[in-house]
Amino acid sequence: MRKTLIAALVVAGVASQAFAQHVKEATLTLSLTHTYQYLVTVNGAPAANDLSWQALVDGDCTDTLQYTSKTKKITQREVINAIAYTLGGAFTTKATLVLDNYDNILKAPPYPRYPWWMPGQEEGEGVPYPVWTHPEERVTWPDENYIRWSWIVWLDTDFEYEANVYVKDPSNANPLWRCVNVTPFFEIDENYCFFCWDTMDRVTSGKIQELADAPVPCFESDSDCGLKGSGTTKWYWTIRFNNTQNNIAFYWDDWLYYWNDVLGFEVNPPALAAYGTAAQYAMVWTIGGVVSYSWSYKALGSGEPIDVLGTLSGNVLGYGATPFCGVLTGSVKMAEKIIKVEDCCACTFSVD
Amino acid sequence: MRPKTVVIAIILGVAALAALIIAKSLVRPDSTTASTTAPVVEPAVSNPVVVSTRPANSGVIAMTPQQEAAARIEQAMDEIREDLANNRPLNLLGKLNSQDQQVRLEAVDALKALDYTNGIPQLVAAMNAATDIKEKAAIQEAIDFLQLPVGNPTEELKAIQAMEKAQLQKPSPKPAPTNAHGLPGVQLPSAPVKRQPLSPPTPNP
After folding, report:
1. Which of A45, A131, A317, B22 has the fewest CB atoms within 10 Å, i.e. is most exposed?
2. What is the DSSP letter of A305?
3. Closest Cβ–Cβ partner in A29, A54, A294 for B173
4. Which of A100, A244, A280, A300 would best serve as a mutation to test chain B binding (most B beta carbons within 10 A)?
5. How many CB atoms sit inside 10 A of residue A224's CB?
6. Measuring CA to CA, which residue among A208, A194, A189, A209 is closest to residue A286?
7. Could you tell me which of A278, A262, A284, A250 has the C-alpha nearest to residue A85?
8. Per the domain annotation, does B128 fall within a domain?
9. How many contacts, defined by CB atoms under 8 Å, are there between A and B?
10. CA of A329 to nearest chain B CA: how many angstroms apart?
11. Which domain holds residue B143?
């Protein structure tokens, strides 16, 4: 099963890039401000978890409660550090968070990602309809109100991942830690209302134009047509992160095998929030908000297919513990770039 | 059909095609004769479109100033996307002086996203140079974010340990006085409140 998992991940990453010399990859950045409850004291002494208010009702009329909040920033650097702690490894300051395999097969930003196994989505069936307008089978989205980018599909004894998140650290002294799949730390969703039509949750202003003699080929190498287009697409995006013992992924043999046995880490997640082992490294949060993706079609390289390229950005709100509980405000960005296949984490992801 | 008939038909067809081509070339206007005719005078344009002064052989189609600005901004935004994706904050600093506000603001946003604290002096200068209040506010917000502290695990561990210690030392809680709803702080009455006797029901008329 382990080898099947690895093989499936490799295939998923490489399938759409089989003949390209270049691929696209997105860099995820976070600019979050965390305002949190740092301390509660009773008469100057830190209060126990549930005794602060108790002091006021003991009847001696002399107690003072002091509530202290603090504010700090959470960026991709802090998130990568939280991942490194859990994995028992180290990344350089140049490390970044990158995403891949999050587009739909149409590579049409007005439509969301959908699982590859849904009707009409398999490679070789031509350009499929979006699943929700599929003529034969109206598919209820498997997660009701979430379109999960990092969807995990169980198929009998195997499972498959959609979008993947990596820590990319090309200058890491350990070659095995230059591209580390950290998808289970994250959950990335688009939210939609059940009655939406055609474009589901997405709202686009833009234009896609088919050209008979386009200067760049279409997505499929055997297509005679080309596309040009650009636009701005909005949706409601949610990202969750969890590096603690409460994340069930840290108990899955497959991932432990990959991180520990293949890459040489020693996975040891911290306890959730305060009052546990290494709690200062615990990080659990959820952020969400409307993001805006400005995109256009560009050729990946001379004579290569086109792909969608752009920048996603938006303001987000949320909550979480890092390790103290509090509220989050800020922004996220996802900037896409064209890279060589040999520099692509998904393309080089292998147990060998 | 006999081969001889086929050959004759092909010869006739080719001959007809050749005649058509020759006839067409005879009626095509000659460029030399056209140059001797009086030029067509274009009516004066009241609002002439200013086109690019790029040389004609540059391969670039002439654009209006608006189109040039749009192309310039699009290119700059593409460069910012690449710089952000490739973690190149130094390149972004140069964009703070762009003539286009959209580009300047995108560069500010990208520097914030990369958490490039070394760029604060340049951001301060850009804020001072900005004339638009919204642009100033956006740059100020980015500076404020960059100046925020990051978490200090050592300090946070001490705070956690202090709370853990308090938790371990907490006395066994004495039951706090509660009211009838189980809420703290309000003493229960020591004696039951005497109720006023109900009035006897009024008999129906």
Report:
1. B22
2. P
3. A54
4. A280
5. 9
6. A189
7. A278
8. yes
9. 116
10. 11
11. 65-147
Name the residue of chain A whose CA is nearest to B155's CA.
Answer: A280
Instruction: Give the number of residues written for chain A.
Output: 352
B37 φ, ψ to 5°?
Answer: -80, 160
For residue B196, being part of any structural domain is answered with: no
Quick one: which of A352, A345, A173 has its CA closest to A262? A352
Residues of chain B found within 8 Å of residue A333, distances taken between Cβ atoms: 84, 109-110, 113
Closest of A36, A51, A29 to residue A280, by C-alpha: A36
ipTM: 0.84
- Residues 6 or more apart from B125 whose CB is under 8 A from it? B96
Q: Do A323 and B160 touch (CB under 8 A)?
A: yes
- Each residue of B142-192: pLDDT tens digit? 999 999 999 998 888 888 888 878 777 766 655 555 555 555 444 444 444
Domain spans, chain A = 2-41+65-348
Residue A46: which of B80, B86, B166 has the nearest Cβ? Answer: B166
B92 domain residue, yes or no: yes
- Tokens representing B47 are 């609002």
Which amino acid makes up residue B158?
K
B176 interface with A at CB cutoff 8 Å: yes
- Indicate the helix (H) or strand (E) that contains A2: helix A2-15
Specify whether the CB–CB gap between A314 and A331 falls below 8 A: yes
To the nearest whole Å, the CA of A50 is away from the closest chain B CA by 8
The minimal CB distance from B81 to the residues A31, A96, A311 is found for A311
HEC sequence for chain B: CCHHHHHHHHHHHHHHHHHHHHHHHHHCCCHHHHHHCCCCCCCCCCCCCCCCCCCHHHCCCCCCHHHHHHHHHHHHHHHHHHHHHCCCHHHHHHHCCCCCHHHHHHHHHHHHHCCCHHHHHHHHHHHHHCCCHHHHHHHHHHHHHHHCCECCHHHHHHHHHHHHHHHHHCCCCCCCCECCCCCECCCCCCCCCCCCCCCCCCCCC
Residue B173's Cβ-count burial label (10 Å; 0-12, 13-18, 19+) is: exposed
Q: At a CB cut-off of 8 Å and minimum separation 6, what does A215 contact?
A: A226, A299
Query: What would the pLDDT profile of A227-280 be if each residue is shown by its tens digit?
Result: 789 999 999 999 999 999 989 888 888 889 999 999 999 999 998 755 566 788
DSSP A169-180: -TT-SSGGGSEE
Q: Within chain B, which residues score under 70 in pLDDT?
A: 1-61, 170-205
Domain annotation covers residue B187: no
Q: How far is B173 from chain A (nearest CA, A)?
A: 8
Global model pTM greater than 0.95: no
For an interface test with A, the pick among B73, B118, B165, B167 (most A C-beta atoms closer than 10 Å) comes out as: B167
